[in-house]
Every structure is written in structure tokens, then in C-alpha cells.
Amino acid sequence: MKLTLHIWRQKSSSETGKMIPYTVEANEHMSFLEMLDVLNEDLNARGEEPVAFDHDCREGICGSCGFMINGVAHGPQPSTTICQLHMRHFKSGDTLYLEPWRAKAFPVIRDLVVDRSAFDRIIAAGGFVSVPTGSAPDGNDILIPKKYADRSMDAAACIGCGACVAACPNAAAALFTGAKISHLGLLPQGQPERDERALKMVAQVKQEMFGSCTNIGECEAVCPKEIKLEVIARMNRDYLRACWTNRHEAQRTDGI
Amino acid sequence: MDLKSKCPTGPIETRWDRYRFELKLVNPANKRKYNIIVVGSGLAGGSASATLAELGYNVKCFCFQDSPRRAHSIAAQGGINAAKNYQNDGDSIYRLFYDTVKGGDFRARESNVYRLAQISVNIIDQCVAQGVPFAREYGGTLTNRSFGGAQVSRTFYARGQTGQQLLIGAYQALERQIGLGKVTMFPRTEMLDLIVIDGKARGIVVRNLVTGKVESHIADAVVLGTGGYGNVFYLSTNAKGSNCTAIWRAYKRGAAMANPCFTQIHPTCIPVSGDYQSKLTLMSESLRNDGRIWVPKKAGDKRPPNQIPDSERDYYLERRYPSFGNLVPRDVASRAAKAVCDEGRGVGTGLGVYLDFADAIKRLGKQGVKERYANLFDMYERITGENPYEVPMRIYPAIHYTMGGLWVDYNLMTTVPGLYSIGEANFSDHGANRLGASALMQGLADGYFVLPYTIGDYLANTKLEKIDESHAAVRDAETSVARQTKRFLEIKGKRTVASFHRELGKLIWDECGMARNEAGLKRALSTIPELREEFWKNVSVLGSGEELNQSLENAGRVADFLEFGELMCLDALRRNESCGGHFREEFQTPEGEAQRNDDLYSYAAAWEYAGEGKTPILNKEPLSFEYVHPSQRSYK
Asked: What pTM, to 2 d.p., does this model score?
């Protein structure tokens, strides 16, 4: 199959970029990234610099890869990261537009590679249980009803790829942050720091210049791990509750 | 080279306790005066960084990915072993120890393995407390499943994403310390050399992958948790970025490399479909709990699987190994698959066998199977376009894990004082074959519960000179890194880095893969240097060194694989026996099982760098077995 690709090329964060058209020969068994590997080998042979894109495990779990294909984060296949998207879902003659994640909080580093370190800082602000190594009770001392463990796992499946932010017209990080708040908030281990976690993580989100959530739902539609909007409701509830019950803390961390 | 394992003696049950008591401690107020570098942020590196920082040390943690959460530990699917005996099925620390020594085909140290089995129970507790959402029973307790090489259910899991959840637990603990200012994180930064001063590891040289800037970091100890070298095969289940550069550069600075020929082939991967293929995908071993593996009895039988009646199918693992059946260890299952394919009975492209869930679906219902394996089935369908609820999966072995790595003593210290190696990067606990669900256990044991104790003993006992970045050894290391970058960019050859990597991988897979023989290994040993020479004359790396340049990153990694692969073949050639993942065709039993030679080869091979172009020196650490007596492994 023969494809036309319009790819965002940008040499560094300080330079401006533009779309450049390429043609590539692919076959239907290739993954999307393998198709880009073929393009890069061609470019290299012609003495042109290859297209930079983030990728690592190519199994849909590390969260490294991701860009927009025709305006859709991770492309047309639901619940699928780009590394797991196969060319059988495209047809010969297709024209595809590849762009990096678009969000102020994710500056472009080069071509399709963006800086997602804001996500790490959101986790560092409160996305954990403070339990130093060695201080844990026996695993079965903490009983957790299966349904809570399962729902917690649903939220914990987030791979931190950033598609939710890229798809959101406001570039909000609500699905990502809500997923962590839900993962830990649904478990007994997460209760002691639940209020503080919501306050600190939400404050960090604002500081990173992510937009606000206006319940549009694009994030859920593109999430490769099927994280549900419900996690945002849970985050908002925890945040509101924390603001009422910890007024001094809330004033300090969030200025409200 | 003097290999002192420092393994304690006496009753095995109390060795680690007694040893720990004898280790010197660093006073809490003094810990903050020490700086420790950790390279790698996976289960081993991430857990070590967090724990060392909790203890009060100043930690710098480095990873080449954009975030510590992306380390390849994340891709582990099946689970983590622990001798909790929650299932009341006869498990114990001793049994986990026994299974691991036997599963490793008697090529691991008993003291290390026993310690690992002891610590396994603490790991589960720690991870639960961090909020890892392990699978649970309706009563709220933790549940388990079985894995290959064991007859008890001791594997804890979080759906098919156990590695991800454990890594996120360690990552969150690490991020907490970053937030507290005790760990400084350097993502998108690759270690390119080790700084050794007065015979001690004192720092590393790194390249910032975004700006290209080469800089040095000085510390009192350096820890490498940089994973395995499976990508020497090009096609493997490892992440694309996984590489041997950190351990290889440490080797060239004096750290011995142990047992590089011990590589693990995982029996359940999705078969190769074409030349453009960039990596292989693993299907968790847990699938072998419910799936049945078979091929047609007749060679060349091209009928679709559902038209082959039961009587014309060969469930070869159940036939050959009735007591373990489909749950034999990985090396045994992989070799059996190769054997039936060599007979012309392979399915699909000829390099594949069926993993069939029809019986499981009859027994548990489609919903029951879905609950256990939904994400794996979905992944299989995404990649192959076939629905495994309807047609059997096709699987074939692929490189998955490497048991070899930097030689370490009982303290996890390499032969360079102050340089530690943890997780898959070292050679310590799995012998010649790793059992399923034991990699996660070892990575976390090293990082949470072993290294934090042993590193204190070194720091408390060692007088370290104060040095800074202007030291001659630091500048020397920086210069050699800068020189290599310049050299890559100046070659301006015709072939891409990937084409060399692919060629090397095919050669290693053919000659030093699932089965090896003397002639093939000798062939590889003469071909690899030629390929390396061509690489240094004809590789094409475009762009500059002062920017994000993925070809340049890969060039450095492939250059190291081109050297590492040669050592691996040499090690395989010198080990004239078959054991675990190392199968030499000349040494097999009449039934085709691996035949060890304990009289001559009951040792860990620790290779010492002898200089550019010189044959490395083989040092031997003899292994003795007081508790689990070496026997022909039998899973019949």
C-alpha cells in the first residue's frame, strides 16, 4: 500500500516547525511505527534526517508513543496506542496528517516528540502513598473488597501517554490526574492522605498551565486504556471535600 | 582477578540475618553527606533510588526515557512470586528457594537464592501498602495463580499488567522523594561511561539526549540498574531502547561480565510476520495455565486448526512431560517448540505452534476466560487480526530475558569497588534459566531490601577522597565520549544503524539462540568482527551531536552490541555443556534434554576485559550446592 504522510517537522523547541509531505510504501501487517521505521530508513538513505518520535516498548504499555493522526490522538482505532495500531486499518492511497500532542504544558522538543515532564511533577505533588520501605504490614492484613480492587485497577491502568491532554480542547489534565486520585482513593491504603493528595495534585495541575475540564469527554474517547470520565467526577468530589474540611491547607496550597 | 563472593556460611535459613547484623551502618546524620548515583529507573533502579533517599542519602537517578515510569519493567505481564503460602498448598521459603535453584539448572548461588526467597514475602507487603491493586478474592484477600516450573500457586498479579503496577508503585515512591528534594531525576539522559578513580567507581559521564551536552556526575557510589542485553538479538520482547551500553562500558572499566551466554527464550510470543518487523510481543506465560499447546501429528498438515480432529493433534508438552504438562519451565517449553517445528510440524509460517483455549472456554465459559486474560486476548487480536476466542493463538519462542550480566558479590557489588549492579543488569540469582514471575521479585528485592543495607557497609568502611569534575580521570572519560560521538558523525557511510543491528541480531539468533554448536559459534566469532569493522567504516548517522538525535543514540548502543555479541558467543563456546537457556547441541541426553557437566562447569564464568582487540580473560567462581543437590532436571 502507498500512503501520503504530512508530518510536522520541527528541529528544536526554539525553532518553528511546518508540515512536510512524504510518500511511503507499507504493507498491512506492519504496525504504524514500523511503517515510520521504513520511512526513516528511506530518508536516511536519501541523506535526510529521520523523523523523531518517542517509542519504547511497542506493546502499548510504556506510554512513550503517541501523536495525532488526522487530528485524533493515537489514531482511528479505539483503545489502541499508536505502537499497537496496524496498517490493516488503513488503505492504499490514504493521506494522513501526523502532528505532535498539542498543549501548552507539553512543549515540542523535536518533530513528534514532546516534553511530558509536567505529568511527573503532578505525581510528585501527591500521587503516592507515603509508606517508606520496610514499614508495611502483612499483605493480607489489609482486606479490600474485590470490586474496589477492580475499580482501583481500572484507574491504575493509565499509562501516562498524554493523549487525554492532546485531545482536550482545553488541554486539561483532568483524566490523568483523576485516574491517579481514583486509583489511590478507592483503596484503604490511600485514605490517610486523600484530602491532601487532591489539594496538592490539583494545585500542581494549575501551576503547569493545563486548562480546566469542561466535561467535553474527548479524553475518554481517545484513552487507549479506557479510563472513564467517572475518575474526573471522583477527583472533583475529593477536591471539593478537601477544600471544605481542610480550609487552611486549601488556602495554603491553592490560594482559595 | 580475585572473585570473592562474600557469601556467608552456616545454616542457610539464618545466613542473611547474621550477615546483615555484621554489616556496618552509616549513622543517620552522616547519610546525608553521601551522594549515590543510580542509573536506570525500573523496578530495581526505581526502588533503590526511593529507598536510599528514604534512608537519607542524596540520590541522583538517570534514565534515557522521558520519564522514570517508562522503564521496561513496565511490560512484565504475568506476576511476581512470593513464598506467602496464602493458598495453603504447601509453599514455603524453602520451596521457592528449591524451585529457583533447580529451575536455574544449578548455576546460581544458594546463598543469594535463599535470601531472594526470604525477601519475597516483604516485597508483597511493601507493594500492597503502596497501593498496588493486586487481584483479590471476594473475601478481600490476595489471590494467586500458578506459573511454569512450580507446582504451587505463589504468583501475585494485577491482571496482565503486574509489571506496570509494581513499577508505578516504585515510581510513585521515587516521585515522592523527588518532591521532597532527596532525589534529583535526570530523564532523557544516557550514561556513556563510568568514572573510576583510585580503583573505585566515583561517577558517570552522561549525554543529555535533548541538548546533546556531555557532562559528568561525581558520587561516592554508583548503582547500575540498567536491565538486560536481549536486544543484541535485534528481535526480542525488550523495549526498543533497552541496551547494554551502561554495563558494557562498566565492563571496559574493569567490572567482570558473568555468564553472558545465559539468555532466556520465552516460549509464548507472537511469531514473526515479516522482514520489517521491529520487535516481538510476548504473550504472558500465565496463558499456559489454561491454554493447551499442540501441533498437527503429521508434518506439513496445512488444514485450518478447527478441521484437525483431536486424534490427529500432538499435545507434545502434555505427552512428554505428564506431571508438569503445559507448565514446564521456559527453556524446556521453548526447545520442545523448536523440535516440533524442526520436524516440519510448525504452523502458520512454519515457525509457530498452537496455544488453544477451546477446552478452557468449554470449562470456564467465554466470560471466565475473558476475566483472566482479556487484555492479552485483545492485544493478540490487535497485532495479528485473529480472534483467539475462535481460533487458537499461534506462538513461537523469542528472546525475553538475560540471566547473565555484571558479576556481583553477595553485596551486589561488582569487581569495581563502589560499583553496584542490581536487577536484570547483574547475574546473581537465576542461574542458567529464570522461572516465570521471578524477574519482578529479584528487581524489587535488590532495590528495596538488599542494596540499601549493603551499600552502607561499603560507605562506612571506605575512605573516599574528595574529588570534583576537574579531575584528570573525569576529563579523560568525557573526552572519550565526545570522541565517539564525533567519530559516528564523521563516518558518513551508506548503511543505517538499524541495518547493522538487524544483521547482527540474525547472526546471533542463528548461531547463539535456542540451540548452539561449536561450528556455528566459531562462525559467529569470525563474522562479528567483520561486521563491526564494516560498521565503523560504513554506518550513516545524520544530524549533529548537539540536538535530539535518535540515530546517534542508537549508533552508540549498536556499537556496544557489536562488541557484546562477540563475548556472548565466546562464553557459549567455552561452556561445553548444556544448562538452562544455554543448549549446546553436542551435549544432550538421548531424550534431547539439556545435559550438564557438573564436574567441569559448575562455575560462574566472569569475563575480564583485557584491552582493545585482546581476548578477554575467563575467571571462574566455583559453585557449591549444600542444600539442593544437582540432579538432572526432570519435569516428567
From this structure: 0.97
